[in-house]
Amino acid sequence: MGIIVSFFALMSLLDFERGGHVASVQATSTATTTVTVLNTPPDWTLTARELYASATNTPTNAGTSTVFTAIATDNNSEDYLLLVCKSSSTPTHPYMPGSPTPQCGGGLSDQWGISATTSSAAEARLTLPVTALDDENNPWYAYICDINAGSPQCNNVMYNGLHEPGAPSATSSPFVVNHAATFTLAADDSPTAPGGTVTWTTTATDTIDVLRGGDGLQLFVCRAPGFNPEGPYCTNGGWATSTITTQGNPSTSTDLTIPAQDGDRPAYVYVVDEFGLEATGSWQASSTVLTVDNTPPYVSSSTITLYDVFGSTTLDTDLALTEPEGETQNFVVTFDVNDDNGCLNTSASNEVTDVDINVYRSAKGGALGLGCDSSGEYNANDCYTHTHPQWVPTCYQDPADSCTAGDGSVTWECTFPLWYIADPTDIGSVFAGQDWRVSARATDDGQEGVSPQTGDYSSDDEPVDGASEMTQFLSFRATGSPIAYGSFEPGFGNTEHPATTTVYATGNTGLDHYLSGDAMCVTYPTCSNDDSDTIYVPYQQYATSSSVVSYGSGFALSTSTSPQLVNVDILKTTATATPSSDDTYWGILVPSSITFAGDYVGRNYIDAAIAPSNEW
Prior knowledge:
Elements: H1 2-18, E1 43-50, E2 60-61, E3 65-73, E4 80-85, E5 111-114, E6 123-129, E7 137-138, E8 141-146, E9 154-159, E10 175-178, E11 182-188, E12 197-205, E13 217-222, E14 227-228, E15 233-234, E16 238-241, E17 252-255, E18 263-273, E19 287-292, E20 298-299, E21 305-308, E22 327-338, E23 352-361, H2 362-365, E24 383-384, E25 394-397, E26 409-419, E27 436-444, E28 458-459, E29 476-479, E30 499-505, E31 511-517, E32 540-543, E33 555-556, E34 564-570, E35 581-588, E36 604-610
Parallel strand pairs: 2-10
Antiparallel strand pairs: 1-3, 3-6, 4-5, 4-8, 7-10, 8-9, 11-12, 12-17, 13-16, 13-18, 14-15, 18-19, 20-22, 21-22, 22-26, 23-24, 23-27, 25-26, 27-28, 29-30, 30-35, 31-34, 31-36, 32-33, 32-35
């Protein structure tokens, strides 16, 4: 205003000097105008919010990040920043000296973070790492500030999603942090036998987070290292998984399958909360030792089959002796051996390493063969025990039977001998109604420092395809040949019965025998049957007792066409080295009709017969 006043004063002066009679003179002068337009803050286009809801029921796991986002537009098209503070306080404006960025009103300690420089009208993002040191509940307040070289401005209007119309959103302040549980101890209750239950217990708690009334914890027991908490699941197979518990200390269990190889197994333990956050602590991802117990093998009694490998048909269950005064080899018994630890051990070797068998007459062995299972009970008549040093069966795992870790049973086979005196049990024998049976047991490998385990005997109490009968074995041996009567004139002969033959029972029965003979002559076996040169059969006599001395008090011999059964009652042999026996005493009379001198020869026949069983 001062300039304008001075200009009009000068013009008045000029007009006065001219006196009104002087022509007017005009002139123009200019002046520069200036004004400073101040910078204005950016405007909110899209108010601040959490990009991913971080709320009570959708917390952000410690160790991850939460993201804040907003869109601002600047009138000068200048870049802007998204500033997130811990309290509602006007950001510093203008900038604090020496600080290239705006600060929350409470300074750096009041600041959650600040975004990268963002173009006007573009989306700004602030990615905030969340740590275990953050509180569970964290209020936030967002501001926008432009980047202006002269007078940068912050929009003092704060947004955090809570003062907008409507119910608060899950993407509003505060953001919620989920903290990890603490896992300090784990254990399992093994060793456990296959088919049993293994239980894992833990000490794992979450005492920091209280907004939800305690976070649910879940225990995973994995077969190998590797866990995906987002699943959550074991990445390489698991043993067991617990339910979710809000009480802490989760536990879980599993039933061991049958078969399960004995030995130690790794069992890696992981605790995770309901939001997929793994626990911290020394036990997380560590391994307990799951020990599968070694269990004794056992024989399936229903599979025991005793048979004669030389029988007339395959698996002929009638047992027939063939060796007089000896042992008949290669009787066979097969059976299935079960082991809950499987057929193969962890070294891919046979789990079952040995079997024992006892073979016996049923009444002798009794229930489960317990009457025939020790060395002192051995008897070649009715009880063959594996503990006896002179009876050694040959047993082996059937090579034709597959054997894998998943197989719970495998077939074994044993071959064994029986002495010639083994009691018969077929019809007509003393022990008819009984049979021969086998008891068997197995021993495993006792792997990994565990002593071998031997199962109990299982017995063929109900033999497959009927009882295994021992048949009667008719066998004998006779001595005393030749029967030398001596030298006599016609009409004379033995006054006694000086010649002797002996019959031995070399099978498993008592014996009688048939006696008969042929006529004697010098040209035997082609006799003329003439009274002058043939001694007919009845002139020979036999006696069954040494007390029958004189000739004529015995029995006349029958011809070979009509053998005579002689009831001598030879007892069944009961000792392998000393067969039972009986003697027959012989005498002869040379008839007076004989006129031809010479050495007369003939042949007598002794044929054994099985005696009635009540005479054995």
